[in-house]
Amino acid sequence: MPTTGWFETVAEAQRRAAKRLPRSVYSALIAGSERGTTVEDNLAAFAELGFAPHVAGLSSKRDQSTTILGQPISLPVFISPTGVQAVHPDGEVAVARAAAARGTAMSLSSFASKPIEEVAAANPQTFFQMYWSGGRDKMVARMERARAAGAVGLIMTSDWSFSNGRDWGSPKIPEKMDLKAMLRFAPEGLARPRWLLEFAKTGKVPDLTAPNLAEGRDPAPTFFGAYGEWMQTPLPTWDDVAWLRERWNGPFLLKGVMRVDDAKRAVDAGVTAISVSNHGGNNLDGTPASIRALPAIAEAVGQQIEIVLDGGIRRGSDVIKAVALGARAVMIGRAYLWGLAAGGQAGVENVLDVLRGGIDSALLGLGLSSVHDLTIDSVIIPAGFRRDLGT
Ligand SMILES: Cc1cc2nc3c(=O)[nH]c(=O)nc-3n(C[C@H](O)[C@H](O)[C@H](O)COP(=O)(O)O)c2cc1C
User: Fold this and answer.
1) Per-domain boundaries in the chain
2) Atom of ligand 1 nearest to the CA of 313
3) Residue nearest ligand 1's atom 5 by CA
4) Contact 210, 220 (CB under 8 A)
5) Torsions phi, psi of 377, nearest 5?
6) Is 54 labeled as catalytic in the residue annotation?
7) Distance in Å, CA 181 to ligand 1 centroid
8) pLDDT tens figures, 268-326
9) How far are the Cα atoms of 6, 10, 33, 289 from residue 14, in angstroms, in the given order?
10) What pTM was computed for the model?
11) Is 80 helix (H, G, I), strand (E, B) or coil?
């Protein structure tokens, strides 16, 4: 089977990523935590939802466009923030370009491998994501740098409980790519010659730093140095959320909400949007799939703020299901990471095209002409599917 060129599903992109990436890079993207219950449920839950298609009287024109945080997007899908160190030498810049080419927005993680200046230049619809890390002065400096670079929205991610074990084992990621680390990883790299060649062409090795967390002109901290700072920062209160939102004074999304009571507090803190998310199953294992928590949250606060869902989106019909259950749009994580690994910018464009095609087919089958016509009655929801948390 050819491993370059167009792929028809995200599953195929993932197979190519598995073949192409060194083992530890691939397993860093698989991620998950503890037993892997949440990461599995994020996928399983979408399979429990179904459709009842029509056979005639269908719509020949189908519109996918919407807006998120004030940005018009051509489909209800945009890029979720991830640190994509070592997946591809163009990293988040390739992802941002692909999103721009397909008419959608980019979110850049503060742990990302490329500076916000390069990413926002590649996609003017870029949101910058921050954790509560390093104290207020540092956070303001990072936020102002992102604003100056052209970021048009801020994402605060606050669902992280520093879990550090996986029953299937975690990849051993070096503190930095020095000679010792390179020698240790050489066998893995040599087993993946195409990945190695992509990096060799740039003359650089993956540097495993977080350039968006650099202070002034200081060199960028290492990924683990930045993680250590985050672990030592006192945890945010709801007042801190409100403070960050006020300080940004622009479109603001709180990422990681799974409970109705938290969603209401987010409204009180003045956010523009929330993402119903369990961090792709990488946070507290045993948290249900985000799609199960979505309906109750949408019913409670959907009239007041924008609601986004992320976690487990692998096909266009998943997007349709999430929009039907109350999301305005979805964010994707692993889906585009597999695309990036499989084919760089073109691979991410391919993933967005796969999703767009799937959204279109589902709208066609459902006899709808726009994603805005989707309602909770557009999908079959089995008894016991929902998890109404914090009601
Ligand atoms: C490898 C990896 C790194 C991630 N890094 C971040 C991050 O830096 N900031 C953040 O808010 N979320 C991060 N996430 C979570 C994603 O933004 C998103 O919530 C999740 O991937 C969605 O689930 P999906 O991968 O099933 O689409 C990361 C996820 C993965 C898989």
Assistant:
1) 10-378
2) 27
3) 82
4) yes
5) -80, -5
6) no
7) 25
8) 999 999 999 999 999 999 999 999 999 999 999 999 999 999 999 999 999 999 999 99
9) 13, 6, 19, 21
10) 0.97
11) coil
